[in-house]
Amino acid sequence: MKIPESPPLIENIFNKIFNEKNSQKFTQIFNSDIGITDSKGRYLHWEKLKHLQPPKGLSSEEYWFATKTARQKSFKKLALSDESGKPFGFCVPDDLQRNLHWLDQNAAGSITMDKPITNPHTRDTYLVSSLIEESINSSQLEGASTTRNVAKEMLRQGREPKDHSEQMISNNYQAMNIIREYKDEELTPSIILHLHKTLTEKTLDDPSKAGCYREKSDDIHIIDGSESVLLHTPPAADSLPNYIEAICKFANNLEEMTFIHPVIRAITLHFMIGYVHPFIDGNGRTARALFYWAMAKQGYWLMEFISISKIIKQAPIQYGKAYLHTETDDNDLTYFLIHQMEVIKKGVTALQDYLENQAYEIEAAEKLLDNSKAQGQLNHRQLSLLKHALEHPNAIYSIQEHQVSHAISYQTARTDLLKMADKLNLLRKRKYGNSFVFVSPPDLKTRLAGK
């Protein structure tokens, strides 16, 4: 990844036109309908805009000058700044406004949906699945190499991590649960440090760095590993306490008189942790976890069921570019806001597709029970397990795994599995140590048919 070309300074463009005494050019620019986006509604960085055909009579630089002038008029500055004291801020182009409104309608408040995530009896199953997905994908974005299936097995079985990658994922899962515990609290530096310690426990070369800010001697720089290009040097270590304090005030909506949309606030929190880079490692995981905290605190309940890291992982270069576009263009957060809103929208769409597919598969599993002694005998958890068992002959299920997967008590999980084995003969029960495991028989379809 390369650092985008910094846009030309609009002061220099202005002076050039002024020195040429071209009042007609000024009139053309200021009387034009050029706004904060191009004719297609895109909020473009100079890196791309310079290659487009400018409006008739204008050069590419003059087109940029007109665009930036329009943006400055609607630019909202924040009480957050870079190391030189230059504030971050943003615009709200129509497309971003439209997506924010859509998210307000679809992810917050008391929404009536005929979906299992709104059913108190089934939502925990989907919530656990989502937390596991985000834990795996967020860790994989920062180098964890364990496969999804192995990671899911570890978390659901509750076994100890076997290596560094599994430890990262296990830590991330614990951190995501901590976020849910603190969603009604004000954000404090102590919470951020606690979150980081949880995320990096037993994964750092120096264990004492878990839950501690980086120091001057750490000399942290963000480098593109494939091209050895320096992308970002974060603020000095001695400025970190002040930065984190300012970030917490912003996150808690303190000392601000103007309204900032809650989703914009959450995405900005995500950006600032990545920008400040307060730790020697785990900054991305911390930033994404705090995004979830901010969304949960503001009542965007649907986000609990979405893995943003899964979407980001599909195009990590675009994620990095969103940071760089902001930094190279006057701390304009709009680029990052637009990118993250696209990620969120893709996540919501993926969730809707997943739920529809799950409903179809559960319905198909229920049809297999027609005219069998198990008809009407299985709850949603048992149906989900049955569906998996049909697809995976000889799969092994434990009580603890079933318990974790559905966020239920051990006794409830035990009752579910014993019924499927002892009463309905759908699973084979086997002694394993002091407990039982349950095996999906290869002839499960035959058993369902009662043959």
Describe this structure in words.
It is a single chain. With 451 residues, the chain is mainly α. The chain folds into two domains: 77-353, Fic-like fold; 378-448, Orthogonal Bundle (Arc Repressor Mutant, subunit A). It contains 19 helices and seven strands. It has helices spanning 10-19, 23-30, 46-49, 60-74, 94-107, 123-141, 148-157, 164-181, 189-200, 240-251, 262-276, 283-297, 308-314, 316-328, 334-368, 380-391, 399-406, 410-423, 444-448; strands at residues 76-81, 87-90, 222-224, 229-232, 396-398, 428-432, 435-439. The strands form three sheets. A three-stranded antiparallel sheet has the order 5-7-6. It has a two-stranded antiparallel sheet with strand order 1-2. A hairpin with a 5-residue loop joins strand 1 and strand 2 (87-90). Helix 7 (148-157) crosses helix 17. It starts with 9 loop residues before the first helix and ends with a helix.
CATH architecture of the largest domain: Orthogonal Bundle
Q: Which regions are unreliable across 5 or more consecutive residues at pLDDT < 50?
A: none
By secondary-structure content and strand pairing, the structural class works out as: mainly alpha
Largest sheet: 3 strands, antiparallel
CATH level-1 class of the largest domain: Mainly Alpha
Query: Roughly what fraction of the amino acids lie in strands?
Result: 5-15%
As a percent range, the share of helical residues equals 40-55%
What is the radius of gyration?
A: 26 Å
Distance, first to last CA: 61 Å
CATH structural fold name of the largest domain: Fic-like fold
Output the number of helix runs.
19
Global outline: elongated
Summed up, the domain count is 2
Output the strand order for the largest sheet.
Answer: 5-7-6
